[in-house]
């Protein structure tokens, strides 16, 4: 089978979502997974062409003002209509970093992605409150690895 394509798009203002993203990337880059090509984009630099390239997408955002970050929102704004007809059923996953909650970010992303009719591979990964990168690295790595391995195996 030809390579499967995994896109990771995230926004981070002060670096904590970035730390989650780096762990997700590590998991998705596991050397045991050979048939998956990875593309990592900051949300402000990503666009519909990246989504149309992908067989699976992982989105990451902090919660800002009870919503997803503006960075991820502009990516979805710019991508929604260009992808709507061609990406239904796309497997996707979400990770969120929040100061104390996270549900507003999750709900806001899920509402838009429901419109796109992408298929979640599992529950969103939310890290809320004070935590060091080491506390959640394993969960993030598992998320990345699960998506990549599932794409490689043709499960997703
Ligand atoms: C402008 C702003 C708004 C925020 N709003 C929320 C919020 O509504 N709920 C929450 O749990 N945390 C909120 N936070 C805290 C961030 O989600 C938290 O600090 C997160 O770790 C930041 O991620 P980043 O380091 O990737 O930018 C807010 C932070 C900022 C800067």
Textual characterization of the structure:
It is a single chain. This protein is α/β, with parallel strands linked by helices and 156 residues long. It contains five helices and seven strands; from the N terminus they run E-H-E-H-E-E-H-E-H-E-E-H. The chain is globular. The protein starts with a strand and ends with a helix. The model has no long low-confidence stretch (mean pLDDT 97). The structure holds flavin mononucleotide. Residues 12-18, 62-66, 97-102, 104, 128 line the site of flavin mononucleotide (FMN).
SSE diagram, text form:
Elements: E1 4-10, H1 16-28, E2 36-42, H2 48-53, E3 56-64, E4 67-68, H3 70-83, E5 91-98, H4 103-116, E6 119-120, E7 125-128, H5 133-153
Parallel strand pairs: 1-2, 1-3, 3-5, 5-6, 5-7
Antiparallel strand pairs: 3-4
The structure holds flavin mononucleotide.
By helix and strand content, what is the structural category?
Answer: alpha/beta
Q: Please give the largest β-sheet.
A: 7 strands, mixed
**Bound ligands, named by name, code or SMILES:** flavin mononucleotide
* Residues in helix, %: 40-55%
- Beta-sheet strand percentage? 25-35%
The string of secondary-structure elements, in order, is EHEHEEHEHEEH
N-to-C CA distance: 14 Å
How many β-strand stretches?
Answer: 7
Assigned CATH superfamily: Flavodoxin domain
Give the overall pLDDT as a whole number. Answer: 97
Give the CATH class.
Answer: Alpha Beta
Give a brief rundown of this model.
The chain is an alpha/beta fold. Helix content is 44%, strand content 25%.
